[in-house]
Amino acid sequence: MDKSTQSREQWNSRLGFILAAMGSAVGLGNIWKFAYVTGENGGAAFILIYLACVFLIGVPIILAEFTIGRRAQSDAVGSFQKLAPNKPWEIGGFLGVIAAFIILSFYSVIAGWVLKYVWSYITGGLWSTPESGFGGYFGEFISGTYWPLFWHLLFMVMTVGVVVVGIKKGIEKANLILMPALGVLIVLLAVYSLTLGGAKEGLSFIFSPDWSAFADPKVYLAALGQAFFSLSLGMGALITYGSYLSKKEKLPSATVSVASLDTGFAIVAGIMIFPAIFAFGLAPDAGPGLIFIVLPEIFAKIGGFGIVVGLLFFLLVAAAALSSAISLLEVAVAFFMRKYEWSRKKATIILGVVIYLIGVPSALSQGGPLSGKSFLFGLPVLDGLAMLSDILLPIGGLVIALFVGWGWKKADALAESDMKEGFLASLWIFLLRYVAPVSIAIIILNATGLLSAILGAFGIEF
């Protein structure tokens, strides 16, 4: 055991670790993206396929990431270098660090929008319908030059403030507060949503499948992609968090707890959102503008109490965003601390500044000075970076699945993961060797547009 391993921080408790890992997974994807993707893909049918993807692909890869991190007791890159020295597996770690930079740069911009809405509900800016409507209000804000940068900066300062304190006093302590608070808020808002008159239609949309949707391959692709990204797979966060875990903790039960809590959170978010949408006769497939345009319109229609509901909702979304951002920053911080022997304070502040600067073009591309300018894939900066992350994360997840499934001896992988020989252990290895790689390859092909091209070559329209 080297010096860096001996001095490595550890979680103070099993609960702290599970809540931190859950915090990494729970974020904008569980509330914002899950809601509108569910709406766009038929509701209940999508959710059933999503659940299958979580437990057939998500759970095996989560366990693989935890196993790699705890065994190596190092950051995402260092873990692969320790377990497979002088072999190319470390590319999976580097992809995670790169993805952390890219994702947090634009994720912080969107989270900054959420903070703006929190402030508007506190100060009265959204107590009534704006003159330009909620769509106009949102458009005017994101097309500005200075305010999007300010809220982006404030969110990054909050994220840096947590990570710089450390694992026990910073990340663990924050999640011990954020996760229970999130749970209480989302349950309260879900219960209230069910009283608005759209409960029957909303619950039917979520829990009564339209069986014809199962014949649509796009629903499967959407569910597969959402399951992968919702659980924060492939970006090195769960490897990094697993590296702060002691050997006495049992990984399989922790893995199931994290996946179940994250999935439960997403479904309750659907119960919170869809009854309200149906109660006011709005479209469930409102797309990315759902939480910034459609939901504020609903809160305004509720009346005076809608101000409180709106404030609580955006506080909920902000807290979820912060918990995920913390894990993204920690991936990069852990790498730079080991690689360059930086102190936590130095690494966190420098990387926080760099990520903020990388995010500036994203903040100015949504109607601002850089609006209309193409970046990657012919898209604006923020959209291009989001699409790039949609490619990097699956590749990282593919490396992780192949490494544990094929790169390690089966006996070693099982011993390090606390799995005993038997059906479940063999199933885990089988899923990592065959099911996960094929599924992830499909995600990558779809994200790059190659899937449509390949199917088109065979005369299959997609």
UniProtKB/TrEMBL annotation:
Enumerate the subcellular locations listed in this protein's record, separating them with semicolons.
Membrane
The Gene Ontology terms for molecular function here are: symporter activity
Q: Principal place where this protein is found?
A: membrane
Q: What membrane topology does the annotation report for this chain?
A: Multi-pass membrane protein
Q: Which UniProt keywords apply?
A: Membrane, Symport, Transmembrane, Transmembrane helix, Transport
Q: Where are the transmembrane segments?
A: 12-32, 44-68, 89-115, 149-167, 176-199, 219-244, 256-282, 302-335, 347-364, 384-406, 427-460
Q: Which Pfam families match?
A: SNF
Cited SUPFAM superfamilies: SNF-like
InterPro entries in the record: Na/ntran_symport (IPR000175), SNS_sf (IPR037272), YocR/YhdH-like (IPR047218)
A cellular component term from Gene Ontology for this protein is: membrane
Q: Which family does it belong to?
A: Belongs to the sodium:neurotransmitter symporter (SNF) (TC 2.A.22) family.
Protein name (Swiss-Prot/TrEMBL): Transporter
Originating species:
Lottiidibacillus patelloidae
